[in-house]
Structure formats: structure tokens, C-alpha cells
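Hi R.,

Quick one: here's the Heme ABC exporter ATP-binding protein CcmA sequence you asked about.
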Amino acid sequence: MYESIIEVTGLAVELGANPVLQDLRLTVAPGEIVAVVGPNGCGKSTLLRCLAGLQPATSGEVRVFGEPPADDARFWARVALLGDEPAWYPGLTAREHLELMVAVHTTPRMTVDAALDVFALAERDDAAPLNLSTGQRQRLCLAATLLRPSTLLLLDEPERGLDSAFRSRLAGLLDDYAAEGGTVVMATHDDGLASHARLVSPSGVTA
Ligand SMILES: Nc1ncnc2c1ncn2[C@@H]1O[C@H](COP(=O)(O)OP(=O)(O)OP(=O)(O)O)[C@@H](O)[C@H]1O
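And here's the predicted structure, written out as C-alpha cells:
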């Protein structure tokens, strides 16, 4: 068991000549829900990308599960990332995309039918993702992310496209994930989701 799942010290990131993150410190304990908040462009997505090992630090240290994040099977067995919309497989339905996740991850957190039910997609399960609405597609992304086994969720604006009822439902799902011992770090502009979380601001500004 780790005392902290995430340990960030003195993190700085420059993109081009742009100092996006400066001397950022963050510690996240198991079972915590952390909301990375702040105005557009303050570095929320950049921080999440650093935690996912997708953005190298200019200086400072990022440790996830005690080690620098590495783009390898061991890291991704524990970490589920919701970032930009993925590329969808042509010819596969929403259900078949979730079945792919189950085929790849041998111990899914729920069945495909349960995921379709939880994410209110059962009636559109035979649609191609590109024939779903924006919010339905986001629910499919969330279903795929929460279906796979993980102990750390990294979510970049999970509320994107969701109606207010489903945003509330998502807050409950994240609470359940944390109650099971999982840890959540999300970049969000949604006050409801943020109200369930400890707030962290890359820039020191939260509104
Ligand atoms: N490839 C890049 N080169 C230079 N600057 C970049 C690059 N990518 C992002 N930036 C800049 O880095 C800053 C942080 O971007 P980031 O996407 O992390 O912000 P954010 O807080 O997630 O914003 P939003 O709320 O709009 O999603 C922004 O000023 C952005 O313009």
C-alpha cells in the first residue's frame, strides 16, 4: 500500500517558450478525489499529461505509484486515462468497442451490459460511435475508461458534453470509485464535480 499515489515536487513545464507550470507541488493519497481547476490555459491538461507520462517535465519530479510514470503495460494496468476523444474503429458499434476493452483487460470492473446500463447507452448499443450524440460519445468514453481495471483515474474534463443530470451521476460514480480505494485526479470546469473533490490549481487561481 502506498502512502501517496502521486508525489509531484518542483514541477516546471515549458511549452515552446511558454512557462506553463512552475514549481508545482502535489501529493495525492489513495482514495482521494482531486479536481485540478482554474481558468483556460492555466495548465490543467498539461499537469494531467505529466501525471500520465505523456508530457516530460522541464524540471522537477513526478512520481506515480512511487516511480516516474512510464508508458508501459505495468503503468497502464493501474492507470485509466480519459483524454481527448479516441479514434473509433470503423465498422464497430458502441457495444463492440466496450467488448474490445473486456477482451483486452481480463478483469473488467463491470460487464459490458452493466456499463451500457450505467452510462445510459443500452438503447444505442448497436450504433457506431460517430452516429452518437456528443454527450453519448463522451458517455461511451467514460464507460470504456471505468470498465477497465484501474486504481488511478486521470480524467481531463470528464463533464464535456454531458447534461447536468449525467454530471451528477458521474460525481456519484467517482465517489463510488474512491470508496473502493481508487484515486481520481480530474481537470474540470464543473462546480458540481469539483464540490466532491479537493481542489488544486496549477496557477493558484481557482476561478
Ligand atoms: N504545444 C504547445 N506549445 C506551446 N504552448 C502550448 C502548447 N500546448 C499548450 N500550450 C499552452 O499551454 C498552456 C496550458 O495549456 P493547457 O491545455 O494545459 O491548459 P488548460 O488549463 O487545460 O486549459 P483549458 O481549461 O482551456 O482546457 C496554454 O497557455 C496553452 O496555450
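The pocket of adenosine-5'-triphosphate is lined by residues 15-16, 18, 20, 40-46, 187 (CB under 6 Å).

Cheers,
M.
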